[in-house]
């Protein structure tokens, strides 16, 4: 190991003692500077850097103890080892020297072998200190680089959130005999939930709720891809629509839509993620609903009489099993009834006691806020969920699509 002690300042009011020490240290290869008083030494130390100071304790004017204290108060970079030369041997004097910042003591007259050993001991201390400084600089540099990367990633995620929110181009539309409202609240910058609706032919409204496994960028990218399969502006690219013999587009059965998505995810996209989904059609004239449930939480019907009825058969998620079968379910909405598809971020919310909200708790929230509609209802549900969790981070995305069937107002 290379000795870090190169430059030494020798301070002694005795010229003879300085010359003896300087001669010995110079022969050992050290760069030595001399000072005859404490004041002179302090002035030299303000302009130059030394690795080690070897100072007599007893000097006229500023003594070695005062020099050590004054030097330790100077602004500097890096540590400097300080050895006091003294004839004092009592413990009180040694303690006093340590208190003001001395590192070691050497009895006078100085033994050359002991001096060499004390300097080598100081060199080991300085080596460890400088190694620690190097590691601290490396840590500081690395943390700065990580912070820069984090800031860049954070900016990208903010933009990604904006883009994901743009997937929900309309949060509300009035179709005359029905209204549809959407809510999408990722728990982080981006999430794996997706909700939407589109016209699926004359007097048919399609709507869906999707929850991709996992969280973060990979899940968000898959939701963006899935959103493209349900394009409202391009029926030729909408997986839920098929062209009829007259060139018009009509809805595919919901179970066939789920089956096609399952094949795409397993064979073409080859994603490690899967997703759950509720996908349905509402007949805008009769209130009839055809839907398929693919591992998603049960749908809930909220009636004007303030009843919240859950229904569903579970079904298999999409993207797990190649030959999974998906079933069609049917129901009819009466005027004033609302059909709600929601993500499990609601029902799996955990309270301070560890209990999940579940369907019963979510039903209570719906009944409590049933007088509200559309965005106001969604806001109230989120407030109640936050209160139930005790203000804790919810930890999962929240999404909801609500369809309200009305009397014919056309």
Automatic annotation (TrEMBL):
Chain ranges of the Response regulatory domain:
7-123
TM region(s), chain numbering: none
Recorded hits in Pfam families, A to Z, give: Response_reg, SpoIIE
* PANTHER family named among the record's database cross-references: STAGE II SPORULATION PROTEIN E, STAGE II SPORULATION PROTEIN E-RELATED
Keywords, in A-Z order: Hydrolase, Phosphoprotein
Q: What is this protein called?
A: Fused response regulator/phosphatase
Asked whether the UniProt record includes Manganese among its keywords, one would answer: no
Q: Which InterPro entries match?
A: Bact_Sigma-Reg, CheY-like_superfamily, PPM-type-like_dom_sf, PPM-type_phosphatase-like_dom, Sig_transdc_resp-reg_receiver
Question: Which PROSITE patterns does this chain map to?
Answer: RESPONSE_REGULATORY
Q: Which residues carry this modification: 4-aspartylphosphate?
A: 56
- Answer yes or no on keyword Cytoplasm: no
